[in-house]
Amino acid sequence: MTSSTPPNTAPLTQDQLKTLVGQAALQYVVPGEIVGVGTGSTVNKFIDALATMKDQIKGAVSSSVASTERLQALGIQVFDSNDVPRLSVYIDGADEIDHHGNMVKGGGAALTREKIVAAQSDRFVCIADESKLVKTLGAFPLPVEVIPMATQRVIAQFAAKGGKASIRLKDGQPLVTDNGQYIVDVTGLQIADPLAFEAEVSQWPGVVTVGVFAFQRAQVCLLGTASGVKTLTF
Ligand code: 5RP
Question: Of ligand 1's atoms, which has the minimum distance to the CA of residue 132?
């Protein structure tokens, strides 16, 4: 009688899926260039993977203090975005991504700098696990960075659109972003036309950045799935 070990059929954890897509994103990094780097737990996996090829790149432009510190701790030089006219690629996560590459971002409160670095990049490669893929944006509370004195007005404007907005807190106090502003998170929205929504909300007085990325949508999404990394192109 022979005994055999049953195949390991345990599904990959969300953390393992993030590691997979973080590593897969290396193929989009252009040797000899500066790479745009986002923020969040998935991007942290990418930064760790990027360290294995740090001698092949010039460095990075970062979208947050947290990512800058992680990059520098791994010996990757971080450039000011003002000193880098153009990036070939920006790699970042998302809170939601639809089938056209439109995203909701800002769960890590870094949406403003993320949009800035995305805007200076030729290509946005989104890295995400499959739980982030949605038909319509809006299930994840929409982050909006606002100037503190405009907070109540912005909350009222979202209420008029059927959304319920609240100030994001940290240790019982309003969370303050890397840019010194507040975040409001909005629930109850169905964002059927992301481009029109982003254009409208971006014009409200006091809104610094709305977390809908339609103008700066992804061209590629590396999606971590049970059967491996799936590449979606838009
Ligand atoms: C930070 C972001 C992140 O990309 C988004 O929140 C996804 O984060 P994670 O990879 O931790 O799920 O927009 O502002």
Answer: 12
Q: Is 96 in the pocket of ligand 1 (CB under 6 A)?
A: no
Say if residue 121 is in the same domain as residue 31. yes
pLDDT (tens digit, 9 = 90+) per residue, 82-124? 999 999 999 999 999 999 999 999 999 999 999 999 999 999 9
The verdict on whether 114 is a catalytic residue reads yes
* Annotated active-site residue in 114, 130, 145, 200: 114
Say if ligand 1 is within 6 A of residue 108 CB: yes
CATH of the domain at 193: 3.30.70.260
Q: Does residue 122 share a domain with residue 52?
A: yes
Question: How many beta carbons lie within 10 A of that of residue 156, not counting itself?
Answer: 10
Domain that holds residue 190: 142-211
